[in-house]
Design goal:
Blueprint lengths: L1 H24 L4 H12 L13 H23 L2 H15 L3 H25 L4 H42 L7 H10 L50
Helix pairs in contact: 1-2, 1-3, 3-4, 3-5, 4-6, 6-7
Length: about 240
């Protein structure tokens, strides 16, 4: 419905805005910053909007872009609302797509760390006091807004993780190492389907579309054979 479509629009627009703002703060021109924002906003999973799903992934991209933008400004200015926005950007996605956000955080965190070190070396007067207050505001905001999300991760995601690994990795018959490897690589983009990056929909639209069904290899469970349980392809 409308909410479903609007959700993707808002997430991608916010992602582009956040990264564009971050790049503008780095001194790039409006055109160059917008190009960078668009490149990130329509990269990876977000490029497959024709068959969009897993809204949490779009939330993770939005949160990462906002965290990069607000966190950078918080570090440079010490303005406490930016610390609040940084905390909210994390809380937004912790309970929905923590795994993808953690991967994005591995990129965002070093960038913010470099920013922090740079500001420390410039020796702004009174910066330590403003930074300490900001960190306190960040911690309080994150605690208030994110405790339910942390509770969900602990009571839901972590408890079900081992069962999901076993289910995806061939059951108890497979070794622990095999199960984890299959779980981490299952449903990865097959090289043969990369042609869709240049020629969209050349292999059909969606698995559930009877008129133009998707017949590529994306979403095929490991070890799947015709007639077996699981998906032959699932876009």
């Amino acid at each position: 419905g409308f909410y479903h479509v609007a959700f993707y629009f808002v997430c991608i627009s916010g992602t582009v805005w956040g990264l564009t703002g971050y790049l503008r703060d780095r001194g790039l021109s409006q055109g160059a910053a917008l190009l960078g924002g668009l490149a990130f906003g329509f990269s990876g999973y977000c490029v497959s909007l024709v068959s969009a799903g897993h809204r949490g992934v779009f939330e993770a991209c939005l949160s990462a872009a906002v965290l990069l933008f607000a966190g950078s400004r918080a570090i440079r200015t010490g303005f406490w609302p930016y610390y609040v926005f940084s905390a909210l950007s994390i809380s937004l996605v912790m309970g929905t797509q923590p795994d993808v956000f953690l991967i994005l955080l591995m990129v965002v965190a070093p960038l913010l760390l470099v920013e922090f070190v740079h500001v420390l070396r410039t020796g702004q007067q009174g910066y330590a006091k403003k930074c300490s207050l900001g960190v306190l505001v960040f911690a309080v905001a994150l605690t208030i807004s994110g405790w339910r999300a942390v509770e969900k991760v602990i009571t839901s995601y972590l408890l079900k993780r081992e069962a999901l690994i076993e289910q995806a990795g061939g059951g108890k018959a497979a070794s622990d190492g095999q199960q984890k490897w299959i779980f981490c690589t299952n449903w990865s983009l097959p090289p043969s389907d990369c042609v869709e990056l240049a020629v969209p929909l050349v292999k059909g639209v969606e698995s559930t579309d009877r008129a133009v069904p998707f017949w590529g290899e994306l979403g095929r469970s490991s070890g799947w054979k015709p007639g077996a349980a699981g998906f032959s392809s699932y876009r």
